[in-house]
Write a structure and sequence with these properties.
This protein is mainly alpha-helical. It has one helix and no strands.
Amino acid sequence: METVVLIAVIILVIGIGMRLIHLLNAQHDARIEAYRFSDPLPRPPGLPNDTGQGAHRTDADR
């Protein structure tokens, strides 16, 4: 009987821990979403403009 109670308590504690972690993750996600990140830094002069347009070119496009 003691073993069954012990296993039930362990399962209950694991469930409470899972719920606590879930709530903390949700709180952390809300905090990240609310934080205003700064604008990206401008590209240094002389670097190619990486807009992704040239990545999709094939021989037929030339």
